[in-house]
Design brief:
Length: 91
C-alpha cells in the first residue's frame, strides 16, 4: 500500500493514489478510492480527515477527500505557528 511520505505534498499523494487505482481498475468505485486515500494519509492528518468524512451526509468522493484533507493540512501547518507566535508575544 502507498503511504504518504514525509515531505510529500497532499496533492502529489492524491494524484499517485488516483493513478494507482485507475491502473488496477479503471471503474473502481469512488468509495474504495477514498478508502485507499485515507489508509495511506499521514498519521497527523488521518484522524481529522476521517472524522470529517464520517460526518458527511453523502458518500465521500475523492474530491471531497481532497478538499477536507487540504483544509486539515493547512490548519496543521498554520496552527502551531500561530500558537507559538501568540505564546512568545504574550511572555
Amino acid at each position: 500500500r502507498k503511504q504518504q511520505q514525509p515531505g510529500e505534498t497532499l496533492i502529489a499523494y492524491y494524484d499517485d493514489i488516483l493513478d494507482l487505482c485507475k491502473q488496477v481498475d479503471n471503474n473502481i468505485p469512488l468509495h474504495m478510492t477514498v478508502d485507499y486515500l485515507q489508509d495511506g494519509l499521514r498519521h497527523e492528518l488521518k484522524i481529522h480527515v476521517k472524522r470529517q468524512l464520517k460526518a458527511l451526509y453523502d458518500e465521500p468522493t475523492p474530491t471531497m477527500f481532497s478538499k477536507i484533507a487540504c483544509d486539515e493540512e493547512e490548519l496543521h501547518i498554520t496552527t502551531p505557528q500561530l500558537y507559538f507566535a501568540l505564546f512568545t508575544t504574550a511572555t
